[in-house]
Design goal:
Blueprint lengths: L1 E4 L7 H7 L5 H8 L4 H22 L8 E2 L5 E2 L7 E6 L4 E6 L4 E6 L5 H7 L2 H8 L3 H19 L22 E6 L3 E7 L3
Antiparallel strand pairs: 1-5, 2-3, 4-5, 6-8, 7-8
Helix pairs in contact: 2-3, 5-6
Length: about 190
């Protein structure tokens, strides 16, 4: 299940203080370390989407503690059977849930940049992107690549330019889906439909 919010600009920083009781104390402390207000808002919205999904889908009412794996992927130590992933960008915040590892990425539209494309795209992917709407294709592929890396628990620390992901399956057989919303792409990689 995926939950997302486009309401980033509707929350003022002063309102964040009212939302802190809904966060684990460690999350509230982490929120304070963000330098810019928009990052604090994105972080809190991600935590609230996590809480919402845990309550709605799993009936988990307590505020969970979040820890990180060695490479930084977050997990819930008290609920090892619940996998989740959070992503945010300028326009949206998303949180996905599954019974197996998954990765979620959300990104507002960004212009095609040849230098960046060479860093993370295969030749097949570049050819496909250049044959259509470059901005849409570039952003969609970036979110697919990020969601795949997050699903693996590696972030972008895998050979991106050697992994073709333009199809709806990863090399290992993960199911990959992308959706274009109002000015952003949302992609998910996991084992479940």
């Amino acid at each position: 299940m995926i939950y997302y919010s486009e309401q980033i600009r509707c929350i003022e920083e002063e309102e964040l203080r009212e939302l802190l009781p809904f966060l684990h104390p460690c999350q509230a402390e982490r929120m304070e370390r963000f330098r810019f207000p928009k990052n604090r808002i994105q972080f809190v919205l991600g935590c609230l989407l996590l809480r919402y999904g845990l309550i709605k889908d799993y009936r988990v009412l307590q505020i969970p503690r979040i820890e990180k794996e060695e490479k930084g992927k977050p997990f819930l130590p008290e609920y090892p059977h619940i996998h989740f992933n959070i992503s945010h960008c300028e326009k949206a915040v998303a949180c996905g849930f599954s019974h197996s590892p998954l990765g979620v990425d959300v990104q507002h539209l960004v212009p095609y940049k040849e230098s960046l494309a060479g860093y993370f795209m295969t030749a097949e992917e570049r050819a496909e992107i250049l044959s259509g709407d470059k901005e849409q294709g570039f952003t969609r592929l970036w979110t697919l690549k990020e969601s795949y890396g997050k699903c693996l628990g590696l972030g972008i620390g895998y050979p991106m330019s050697g992994t073709t992901l333009i199809h709806e399956r990863s090399p290992q057989g993960h199911i990959m889906k992308s959706h274009c919303k109002d000015g952003f792409w949302l992609s998910v990689c996991g084992w479940e439909e």
